[in-house]
Amino acid sequence: MQLFNNPSKQDWNGLLQRPYNDNTAVLQSVQSILSEVKQNGDAALRSLALKFDGAELKELQVSASEIEEAEVLLTTELKQAIQQAKENIFTFHSFQMHKPRSVETMQGIECWRKSVGIEKVGLYIPGGTAPLFSTILMLGIPASIAGCKEVVLCSPCNKEGKLHPAILFTANLVGIKKIFKVGGAQAIAAMAYGTESIPAVYKIFGPGNQYVTAAKQLIQVSGVAIDMPAGPSEVCVLADETANPAFIASDLLSQAEHGVDSQVLLVSTSEPMVQKVLQEVKKQLEQLPRKDLAQKALNNSKAIVVNTMDDAIEMVNEYAAEHLIVCCRDAEVIAEKISNAGSVFIGNYSPESVGDYASGTNHTLPTNAFARAYSGVSVDSFVKKITFQKLSKDGLKNIAQTVIEMAEAEGLKAHANAVRVRISEP
Ligand SMILES: NC(=O)c1ccc[n+]([C@@H]2O[C@H](COP(=O)([O-])OP(=O)(O)OC[C@H]3O[C@@H](n4cnc5c(N)ncnc54)[C@H](O)[C@@H]3O)[C@@H](O)[C@H]2O)c1
Ligand SMILES: N[C@H](CO)Cc1c[nH]c[nH+]1
Ligand SMILES: [Zn+2]
């Protein structure tokens, strides 16, 4: 992790760049994967599974017996943990569903809006470097609360052509039956275009590596919606001299261990504090089984010291991190000043890992500064909001002149007539 001391504001933009900003090569190879799947369907999926996952697949869909067998392969403790996480995530997300409320905009004109679940959705569950079964809870629970009728799940298999039992157990727990052993950009293509085995969906959700994220961005031109670009994980920690260096180091490493393309950032007003964190990072890194991955991510990562807390807040807002941890005096007051972040963790006892797994909030979040404009996944992501209106005859009379005036000014006489014909009815 490189240390930068009081960089000038002109240098901020360069400093805050993500490591793999130029994804031209990734986009090109993903484009050819998308075309291959569009043309050759299941056959392309089999050959890409061999190429990227080393697996020779006969059936792409997980069978009912594979799902049943998975349950006995997990410990009771893990099943209980998944169940607890499910309950918290359900509690947080069920509060996001609103009952339609009708508003009378003028006398006799009633308008309302209703949320309707998207009928067919596809969930991508990352599995290249770790089987992220927690992501199934993050996507499957809001999909079920929203009332999505058809849910398709894709995740890459191992060399033996199998999905991790925790993926199968968790999918079954949230009621997902259509599970496919397909990963990477090819999974996104399959859910967008449909193949002989995999049904096409209307919207695709879920995080993934650079290939998966590029594929989600590219398939939008074919009319399929996506949740957001949720690429390689990142965390930014905002800390002053009151923070605990060991806690901060553990948070930075928790996201660095996701993969070589992750980035972590420490922004602080205290150089001595940053030095202590850097020492702690070295110490704690040695204990990690995924030390090599984390080390590569740390090579892309930065610790930045600034003069004032106002500068620090401005910097983290410009960076727009997927996750922001605020470990400062008056952390709650500072958190109120955050305008760009996927999810914020306040104070010394709110490590990001709790949001990754079990506190209740969603961990599928915008990366690569997309938090400036996108929100993380929620029940809203799985619904369309349809507006309705009903006018009485008197209501139409009340608004008639307004509409006729405006329609005629736009030169659209037929629009005006649709009102006139009704109010002139005897
Ligand atoms: N933003 C979020 O909300 C969020 C949440 C969880 C995880 N993540 C991120 O998801 C990512 C998961 O990545 P992963 O790699 O472990 O799993 P993954 O499932 O996203 O990707 C694995 C697949 O990538 C494809 N692939 C690998 N190398 C390729 C190449 N050279 N060309 C084309 N395709 C290739 C293969 O098909 C492989 O099956 C991590 O970066 C993690 O940080 C993000
Ligand atoms: N930190 C990831 C989101 O960027 C989510 C996750 C899943 N498992 C562990 N972490
Ligand atoms: Zn994580």
Automatic annotation (TrEMBL):
Gene3D superfamilies found in the cross-reference section: 1.20.5.1300, Nitrogenase molybdenum iron protein domain (3.40.50.1980)
Cofactor binding, per record: Binds 1 zinc ion per subunit.
This protein's UniProt keywords: Amino-acid biosynthesis, Histidine biosynthesis, Metal-binding, NAD, Oxidoreductase, Zinc
Leader peptide range in chain numbering: none
Top-rank taxon, per record: Bacteria
Active-site residue list: 322-323
Family to which the UniProt record says this protein belongs: Belongs to the histidinol dehydrogenase family.
Listed name of the protein: Histidinol dehydrogenase
Gene: hisD
